[in-house]
Amino acid sequence: MVKAVVGANWGDEGKGKITDMLAKKADIIIRFQGGANAGHTIINNYGKFALHTLPSGVFYDHTTSIIGNGVALDIPRLIQEIQDITMDGVPQPKILVSDRAQIVMSYHKNFDAYEEERLGGKSFGSTKSGIAPFYADKYSKIGFQVSELFDAKRLRTKVENIVEQKNVLLEHLYHKPLIDVEELYQELLGYKELIEPYVCDTSSFLHDALKEGKEILLEGQLGTLKDPDHGIYPMVTSSSTLAAYGAIGAGIPPYEIKQIITVCKAYSSAVGAGAFVSEIFGEEADELRRRGGDGGEFGATTGRPRRMGWFDCVASKYGCKLQGTTDVAFTVLDVLGYLDEIPVCVGYEIDGEVTTDFPVTSLLEKAKPVMKILPGWKQDIRGIKKYEDLPENCRKYVEFIEQEIGYPITLISNGPGRDDIIYRKFNG
Ligand code: GDP
Which residues line ligand 1 (CB under 6 A)? Predict the structure, then answer.
């Protein structure tokens, strides 16, 4: 059976923690999209880790971690991450990399930075991990697939073609140093050596695993609102963040995905540019940012302060809908314990009309939040294990949001650790 753990919002909802927790009962954990541009923070008995490329199951020795074909594979980053965790005492994880995954090249990162520089103040706020140039090349059919590393002659010819094309842009659009054919070829040979021990046909591996009844977890990156089709285009990422894409990015039948656990944070945060209707500013935002997550809401990859806001029922209802949510994991609820009152965004006012349907970007930019104020619970809820033991106003907050978004909240996370979790009607 396959379960997916995905985000409802802009990312950073706490998917890493939920995946790490569910991985205890899983056999295989797969990353199916995205690259090293976002990170999961995980706290467990080995310490605190920021993973960017590795699936969040690498901390268990009974699991196999897979980098699926849909991932933007940054080979030096992957190898570095494996080294980092093993140096911290984590046993060498079992990792398989799809022979159909494509490779993030050094020039993808350069192009990412050059384009941000060219756009100046109108930039997307990219993390400069090469993700947009990578996926652009993949769909322009000029990317390097891992399998191609193993055919030297074809590889050399392809390198020559690509260098010719890239150098036109480097010379005339960006005015930057050109790429050298031999250097690029050597870069690829270096990647071959590093990745070879991990490469296999992961889709076949997964089909066999499904026949054997194995438990498989798909781990999403970012969230619905960053999806290129259904998100806040163009302030989105370059690969689909939806559970449905898990079938493609892992190479499994779509009907095998039986449970979709959509992670929603009890308040909002976002990185990068784009409309953010329930955003707050000033001291109110600073305080939430300082208290948020585990040690503050700062990017796991960049360290950038995240933009903060109150919970947005409109965005989250939409986010859950597009994921095909069977379960909502409601996270970081403990952080709100300091507030006397908790504002929640329950509608958008656009051109004088109130809606609870999430609109397209041009309308979203005009939306003003319609807020409802709920009473706080003024209590530390960390350590509570049973839903009934939560303070009444805390339960009312959960139930209000469940009602507004229309999907069952079956997991509640009340702390960053693996065991800080409250099960509520959760199946599995
Ligand atoms: P992801 O990319 O969706 O996995 O999210 P991040 O790892 O970027 O952000 C989630 C942050 O919140 C991390 O620092 C987690 O350790 C932390 N976190 C996750 N769940 C909880 C929770 O329930 N309470 C608190 N206080 N922190 C949490």
Answer: 7, 11-17, 38-41, 43, 293-294, 300, 331-332, 334-335, 413-416, 420
Token pair recorded at residue 246:
């898990």
Active-site residues: which are they? 12, 40
Q: Whose CA is nearest to atom 6 of ligand 1?
A: 12
Q: How far is the C-alpha of 255 from the C-alpha of 46, rounded, in Å?
A: 36
Strands 40-44 and 341-350, sheet pairing: unpaired
In terms of Cα–Cα distance, which of 391, 405, 299, 396 is closest to 347? 405
pLDDT at 301: 66
For 416-426, write each residue's pLDDT tens digit: 988 999 999 88
Q: How far apart are CA 351 and CA 354, in angstroms?
A: 8
Helix axes 181-195, 75-87, angle to 10 degrees: 40
Percent of the chain topping pLDDT 90:
84
Looking at the whole model, is its pTM more than 0.85?
yes
Q: Which two tokens stand for residue 72?
A: 């933007």
Helices (H) and strands (E) in the chain, counts: 12, 21
Beta bridge partner(s), residue 28: 64, 216
Pocket test for ligand 1, best of 12, 13, 15, 17 (most atoms within 8 A of CB): 17
Radius of gyration of the chain (CA): 22
Sign of the Cα pseudo-torsion (156, 157, 159, 160, in order): positive
* Nearest Cα to Cα of residue 170 among 131, 124, 132, 114: 114
Q: Ligand 1 centroid to 12 CA: how many Å? A: 7
